[in-house]
Amino acid sequence: MIKKSVSLLAFILAVGLILSAAIGTARAQKSEIEHLQSPASAPNVQIAQVRNLGIQGDDATLVIEVTWTATAPQTTHINGFQMLIEVEYADRSKDKTAPTNATPPRTLLRVLNKGSNLPKRFTITVVSEFTAPSTTPFSVTEEFDLSKGNALDGHGSSSPQSRGQFLNIAEVKKQLSGCSPNDNCFEVSWSVASNVPGITAVNRFNIEAEFTYKFGQSAGVTRNLSDNFDGSKRQATLKVTDVPSGIGDLSIHVKATVKAFVTVATTKTTVKEGSF
């Protein structure tokens, strides 16, 4: 009986740790995504006028008319708007509508009709749902040491999911064939997490790499490369054309950076308070 209780407790603790890790990862990813989007890419919602139109068809409610506009940059796609209103009556009581789909330039909302106890103040909330290219990329940097000991093939130690990140460099290796004799070709492989909410597309990658050639105990000679690749790619080849030469065993230290430019789906909330 004691063994069963201990086993059950261990299982509960294990589940708790897994859930805590998952929640922590989700929060980290959400924080990352929030920093990707520029406020300038969000729709600009302007509420021009709010009027009480009185009773229209239903004696139990009053119709509130909201006149408003929404504009956005050309690269931003608006997916929709949700609007709600909270009104405060003359006796300080309140009524609040549920969020409803709204379309500019005019939206009608219904609140309770309290007879001579008229609405005096309002708070309008508009949630804009939109997608837009990120202004700041995801970025990850890894360092690899290539030598005869690992056949000039360096591997990363983990996946992006296990690290709570969207992006991870998996491998950098020197191609032993398929490159011209006077050049060095390096294959860079990376991966992206598939479970990050809010990322709707990967548009392109930028790869930057610093190759430091060392021969024996000599000082290193560095070559820098950078190139852009399509968002569907997970592997790219960088070519060093001005290859250093020297005497002694060759080792190559590689500092690689991969940047992912993505499209993000997110929201913006606009609030306006006023009086009737």
Can you offer a commentary on this structure?
There is one protein chain. With 276 residues, the protein is mainly beta. The chain has one helix at residues 2-36; strands spanning 44-54, 61-71, 77-89, 94-96, 100-101, 106-112, 119-133, 138-146, 153-155, 167-174, 184-192, 199-215, 221-230, 235-240, 250-275. Strands 3, 4, 5, 7, 8, 12, 13 and 15 form an eight-stranded antiparallel sheet that branches. The longest helix is centred in the first third of the chain and has 35 residues, at 2-36. The protein is rod-shaped. The chain starts with a helix and ends with a strand.
Spell out the key features of this protein:
13% helix, 8-stranded antiparallel β-sheet, rod-shaped, 276 residues, 4-stranded antiparallel β-sheet, 1 helix
Number of strands: 15
Mean pLDDT: 85
Shape: rod-shaped
Radius of gyration over C-alpha positions, nearest whole angstrom: 29 Å
